[in-house]
């Protein structure tokens, strides 16, 4: 049965959520030795670059077309372009992802890898090892704290995604120390960078903060960084074209480069 919050979701998002609820978990409980995402962000900052989480996203309900390149080669090119970490879609029905893609990519690179899926129950954490796992606050209305704790018990670094200040408070109450603010409204599917700018001031300094969705240009990247983003999660703008070149464009989008343009 759909609750009031779900009733306001866009039909495409409700379809994703329905499919996620039916997706099985792993056969055995996983135990992960994670590569530290906060440490990777700090190292990128120290090198004078922008921390970019580049997303291996074959397709999505909000983009046209599909990338059929070997995802491992895409991942390697992103790292070569300066990606601090990678986000890998494992949702199969709407994004063309798979846990096998993530497994292969994580074996091929040495940066932290985020499993981007729609995890709604504990058993689904056991599908594959990754360094970070996405937990969307709106999709886990009742037991977010339990799911964050279950992820940590397995060694994952949970990235809790929010879209509003109310969801941020729920994430912080659940113990989240890595938070992503999604600029995309899951009710209308439109994107507004002001979403991040309105939520970011309320995020504690000791939380690693990501800006997600709608970062299409170097100017967008600088805007999100100026608003407080520790890192930027970028999918379409990197996947659309030469992924190495696109990743480098965002990884070097510092205020200093703006002065040179």
TrEMBL record:
<feature type="region of interest" description="Disordered">
    <location>
        <begin position="1"/>
        <end position="31"/>
    </location>
</feature>
<comment type="similarity">
    <text>Belongs to the TrpC family.</text>
</comment>
<feature type="compositionally biased region" description="Basic and acidic residues">
    <location>
        <begin position="19"/>
        <end position="30"/>
    </location>
</feature>
<dbReference type="InterPro" id="IPR013798">
    <property type="entry name" value="Indole-3-glycerol_P_synth_dom"/>
</dbReference>
<protein>
    <recommendedName>
        <fullName>Indole-3-glycerol phosphate synthase</fullName>
        <ecNumber>4.1.1.48</ecNumber>
    </recommendedName>
</protein>
<dbReference type="GO" id="GO:0000162">
    <property type="term" value="P:L-tryptophan biosynthetic process"/>
</dbReference>
<dbReference type="Pfam" id="PF00218">
    <property type="entry name" value="IGPS"/>
</dbReference>
<dbReference type="InterPro" id="IPR013785">
    <property type="entry name" value="Aldolase_TIM"/>
</dbReference>
<keyword id="KW-0456">Lyase</keyword>
<dbReference type="GO" id="GO:0004640">
    <property type="term" value="F:phosphoribosylanthranilate isomerase activity"/>
</dbReference>
<feature type="domain" description="Indole-3-glycerol phosphate synthase">
    <location>
        <begin position="12"/>
        <end position="248"/>
    </location>
</feature>
<keyword id="KW-0822">Tryptophan biosynthesis</keyword>
<dbReference type="InterPro" id="IPR054875">
    <property type="entry name" value="Indglycph_syn_Halo_TrpC"/>
</dbReference>
<comment type="pathway">
    <text>Amino-acid biosynthesis; L-tryptophan biosynthesis; L-tryptophan from chorismate: step 4/5.</text>
</comment>
<keyword id="KW-0057">Aromatic amino acid biosynthesis</keyword>
<dbReference type="InterPro" id="IPR001468">
    <property type="entry name" value="Indole-3-GlycerolPSynthase_CS"/>
</dbReference>
<keyword id="KW-0028">Amino-acid biosynthesis</keyword>
<dbReference type="InterPro" id="IPR045186">
    <property type="entry name" value="Indole-3-glycerol_P_synth"/>
</dbReference>
<dbReference type="InterPro" id="IPR011060">
    <property type="entry name" value="RibuloseP-bd_barrel"/>
</dbReference>
<dbReference type="GO" id="GO:0004425">
    <property type="term" value="F:indole-3-glycerol-phosphate synthase activity"/>
</dbReference>
<keyword id="KW-0210">Decarboxylase</keyword>
